[in-house]
Amino acid sequence: MLLGTFFLLGAAVLFFLNFHSGKPRKPRPAAYEEFHSKPPAHVLQVSKIDHALRTCLSRNKIPKDQVRFLAVRPKQEKGVEWEFTELLVHVSERVSKELDNDIGKTLASLKPEVTHRGERISENEKTYHIFAKGFYTHRVRLASIEQQSASGNQVKEEKKEKARIAILIDDIGHDVELAKSFTQLAFPITLSILPLAPHTQTIVEMAKKAGCDYMLHLPMEPKEYPESDPGPGTLLVTMTDEEIREVLKAHMRQVPGAIGVNNHMGSEFTENEGKMSAVLRELKKRDLFYVDSRTTSLTVAHKLATTLGVPAASRTVFLDNDPSPRAIEFQIKRLIAAAQETGVAIGIGHPHKATLNVIRTYFEGNKQEARIVPVSKIVG
Known about the structure:
Elements: H1 2-19, H2 41-59, E1 67-77, E2 80-91, H3 93-108, E3 114-122, E4 125-132, E5 135-144, H4 150-162, E6 164-172, H5 176-183, E7 190-193, H6 200-210, E8 214-220, H7 241-254, E9 260-265, H8 273-285, E10 289-292, H9 301-308, E11 312-314, E12 317-318, H10 325-342, E13 344-349, H11 353-365, E14 371-372
Parallel strand pairs: 2-5, 6-7, 6-13, 6-14, 7-8, 8-9, 9-10, 10-11, 12-13
Antiparallel strand pairs: 1-2, 3-4, 4-5
């Protein structure tokens, strides 16, 4: 009788969570974040520019150590947000002409959404100013190898000593061995675990034994819901505050010991101040922090958390929107440059083998570039 009672209670909880997520569904791997849904036009063009630049650098066999991110700065204009990126590429005179020609032709192929203007700074340096949908998004400097500045390097070294980055791996819960591999890296990684994934409990226990920080990856309604589906137990804007709190509490019981929360998808939910307030007030009661995954530029989550006294931070860079190794390394460099601008930065990745391998290889060989810390050390 007692066993039957527990079974009925468990079934009731699962029914409640699935009911409020739409219709009941079979367990399945959750979609990786909201970059799979249709992004804003300027964001799509920025991605195309990044891809074009990576392609040109790869095609011209530019060594990785000759490509440097000088700046990654958040920009806002006319209600649009983006990250302005400045690259410095050191090349020989011969390669410079070939790369210059390749970049010009490749960017021209992206017209009319992407435009660019070349500027000859000196005999040995040319700058590309690149615009996505009219917004100034990239500055690319091609300079002679002989023009590398010792003083500039010293400034960068001073910034590197202060730069701290945190790497948060989302969507954990479907692959135990891959999750274990992230916990075994030689530097601290923070896991964000889905509450109703097939291996949630196993991975929670494994993370505890490994001494790895972990968070609750909280499913929230995206704009394209239900076509874009965060999975079972999704928080919806149609829920009452009490329903939101009850679902959140149930999820916290699934991921006991979580030190914080970040949103899984959630472009619709995180724009809603009233609904986010219900989530954040519950986190405050539990002394938990919140990391805004920033799946929409109109998110109110971070600002509202600060107002309510909940420790919070925001995602700086998605590391593996493009899961190719070269693209992931490009994003890691962008993350480090952002940290050198502000002192701290958070990169969000996902449980891809390529992400694991690139992170491991890059930071084992570039330990001096930034100090990797748990996400909890960056939350303000």
